[in-house]
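Example 204, ligand heme C.
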Amino acid sequence: MVRPMGLLLSLSLLPLGAGQKAAPVGAEADLSYTADGQMRAPVHYREWVYLTSGLDMSYTAAASGEMQMFDNVFVNPAAYREFLKTGTWPDKTVMVLEGRRAEQKVSINKRGRSQSAGLMGLEVHAKDAKLPGGWGFFEFGPGQDAAKMVPRTADCYSCHEMHAAVDTTFVQFYPTLIGLATEKKTLSPAYLKEIAPEAGAPAK
Ligand code: HEC
């Protein structure tokens, strides 16, 4: 996300609890596809590991007056545990970004922002050796339970490849993981170049 893009800016809200099926916990595979190769929307990602929340993140200067939005990022626990050991993501990593509207003056709140109960949409970034390129993006609108992979030509891929700290994921914004990736030296060459104080500066 972090671009004025379709789904998460759509005003339609998913009613609380919609799309949540009562599958027994542990019965659902983290990554699952329909017979015709579409990804099934992850159902239990709210029981996964929480990585961060962003508020109105954007690469373009803010155009004020727009609706404000939080994004919350989660990853499947098996992949998280592997990241703690290696500093990078294993095959079958599933990362979910959900969008929620930033609301004001709800209940007793007088200042600041809280998150809407309704979901604006889900975006998934999944590592799967079966996908072209090894990683794929998927977008799910409110109530949508299966989605085709976003085509490789979309800007999702180029921005993540050019700017994300670890293996096309934005670990520089995941506070519990960036130190670990730095320690394990798994930061991507593109990211290292981006944060280098000055290109071509003499090494100390
Ligand atoms: C201009 C850069 C940019 C573009 C284009 C972009 N993203 Fe991202 N994406 C980000 C940033 C920055 C984050 C970190 C969000 C945070 O910290 O809350 C992120 C995080 C994510 C995550 C969480 C997992 C991860 O990889 O870190 C998903 C899922 C995601 N984006 C999906 C998408 C999809 C789907 C598209 C295309 C429709 C897209 N993004 C396009 C910058 C971008």
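Summary: Residues 9-20 have pLDDT under 50 and may be disordered.
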